[in-house]
Amino acid sequence: MGSYTELSKPVDKAVKNETYRQQLWYFAKGIKQGLPIAVGYFPSALAYGVMALAAGLSPKQTILISVLVFSGAGQFMAVNLLSGGAPPLAIITANLVVNLRYFVMSASFSRRLKVNRVLAAIIGFGVTDETFVMNYLADPEAPAGDGSSFDESGPQKEKTAFLPASYVVGVNSIAYAGWILGTCAGTLFAGVLPNGFRAAMGIILYAMFIALLIPAAAKTLGVGGIAAAGGALSWLLSQYLPSGWAMVLATMAAAGLGVILWGKGVDEL
Amino acid sequence: MTSTSFWFMVLGMALVTYVPRTLPLLLGSEMRLPIWLERWLKLVPYAALGALIFPGILTVDPERPWIGILGGIAAASAAWKWNNFIVSLIAAFLTVYVLS
User: Where are the domains of chain B?
Assistant: First the structure.
């Protein structure tokens, strides 16, 4: 593992010279920045909790999954597949496939982070679609609360400054707290929610996927094409295979098709 | 679900979630992959989203698949117009809640 030696170099001066007070300041700043994520996670996690109980999991099991996994799309998918009677191995494989996007995100995120292995192991746990975007586009030096600390210029702008680790840990922690609290609320209130309310929660998972997809597809038409191919193949394969496996195979095939047809164009994404 | 298969599922899910998140941070920017694999990894999220949305969205109300479709259209329109996660979720939820 030659690449590990790179990490034993002294960390960036600006980051290393952070005093305890500065670290605390950045952590608090991260909490403030991450609060909207937590507020957004709460109802999604609540929906997950309700659906998990409906799929036959106990409240303890439902919360344990949120604590150990912390992945909206993955957990919703697991619960969906579980209520369809899918075996654990199919659920794990389907999770692996949707989680490959984390690999891509963390690979870009690593360009804004210079931390030791312990911190990398802690920060890695909190990488989600939302915390990634918030952290990646963040400017922790900007004053909090006026919106300017969220850089709207997007990822095309060159990001060279390293993020203070305590800031990132702050953003991730509050998001995690929102996810856990929402899950607990879901297991508590599952019984008292009206029936129509519970049925409508089934759409939240798909709305989440759609809200992730649309901005990317609006920016690059090809992205929409890849997703459409994935959907079409997934439908076709689900006629012959259990839905978990159909989804996994369709994803791998549609992405492969994209690489073959699109070639160099993918690099511009 | 037996306790053993539950633990197998949870620990498996935790592992396949944690490793892709953390590995690139541990390897740092030194990580180099073959170009085709990098392209494939880049497209996988979008292909996965498509495959997850369809045909799954038809099962929101299995008796009336069009309810899922309309909820999806509401989410897509809201995401298109406001590009806001929460607004999309609320729009889809309300659409399905009112229809069912």
Answer: 1-32, 33-100
* pLDDT tens digit sequence for B46-92: 888 898 888 889 988 889 999 999 999 999 999 999 988 788 889 99
* Interatomic CA distance for residues A59 and A84, integer angstroms: 19
Q: What are the helix (H) ranges across chain A?
A: 13-16, 20-54, 59-69, 72-83, 88-109, 117-125, 129-136, 165-189, 195-219, 221-238, 243-262
d(CA B92, CA A199): 12
Pair B10, A221: CB distance under 8 Å? no
- In 3D, which of B20, B89, B13 has the Cα closest to residue A67? B13
> In this structure, which amino acid lies at residue B31?
M
Residue to substitute from A60, A203, A241, A243, interface B, most B β-carbons within 10 A: A203
Q: Tell me: the pLDDT tens digits for A213-228? A: 898 899 899 999 999 9
- Considering only the beta carbons, identify the residue of B46, B88, B89 that sits closest to A216: B46
